[in-house]
Amino acid sequence: HGRRMCNPTKEHAKKLAAAGGDAAAAPTAAKQTKTVAANTKCDSDSKEPVSLVELERDAVLDPTKAIGSVGAPKFAGPEPVLPCTWRHTVHHAMVAAACVALLAFDGLPPLPVVAFMLWYGDAYTAVLHCALDREQCLDVKILTSAARGFQAHHDYPLASTHGRGVYRMICDTQRIQLITVGAAVVFGRWNVMTVRLVLLKLLLSAYGGA
User: Fold this and answer.
1) Paired residues of 194 in beta bridges
2) Which of 44, 73, 154, 168 has the fewest Cβ atoms nearer than 10 Å?
3) Higher pLDDT, 125 or 54
4) pLDDT in tens, 172-204
């Protein structure tokens, strides 16, 4: 976004000199006027972006294109930031307590299991991004909110994360953590290995991915 500088004319400089009653001072007046002009921006060009949203939108958006059109951001801005509540705090405390209890009861998990879950956590988040980045997910009611969050984040990566802090970002993963735990309770075996795998998934995919 280039800006033009206000360039006074020579006639304006001569008028300034004439007003002082000394025509010989015209070159000095012209020099002074140019100096002032060099430090003054035209009113029509002095508008600055007021937010990260504008900065990022201007960086990728042709002003002639509408939001949502081809080659333009899908959304006018990132999804609104939801406040953290006591439910998030209780959830994180329960996850921490479960990890401590597992370590006390069963010790450290085997190294091969940790290695596998590191790979799995990375693969899982990759698949999750590929799925939720599809525009079709916006039309699936149960996925709409999560899909909008993922896709708006890619249009506005700075505006959607700047100033939120780590705690706010891990709170954003609570819902998918609850889905993971619920699915394990319904479909998994009720044994130590299931608990171990679920907690590793929460630590590596949710907390680690945030």
Assistant:
1) none
2) 44
3) 125
4) 889 889 989 999 999 999 999 999 999 999 999
- Triad 133, 150, 166: Cα angle to 5°: 150
Q: Which residues contact 112 (CB under 8 A, 6 or more apart)?
A: none
Neighbours of 33 (CB within 10 A): 19
- Show the tokens assigned to 139: 């039309």
- Beta carbons within 8 Å of 42's beta carbon, 6+ residues apart: 3, 4, 5, 6
Distance (Å) of CA 167 to CA 2, 87, 146, 154, 161: 39, 13, 18, 20, 12
Alpha-carbon span 143 to 97, nearest angstrom: 30
**Residue entry with tokens 């969050």:** 149
Residues in the chain: 210
In one-letter notation, the amino acid at residue 44 is S
Please tell me the distance from the alpha carbon of residue 185 to that of residue 194, in angstroms, as a whole number.
9
Handedness of CA 87, 93, 94, 95 (dihedral sign): positive
The structure tokens 């998994």 sit at: 188
Mapped onto helix, strand or coil, the DSSP state of residue 5 is: strand
Contact 194, 184 (CB under 8 A): yes
Q: Is the pTM of this model over 0.70?
A: no
Q: Across all residues in the chain, what is the average pLDDT?
A: 75
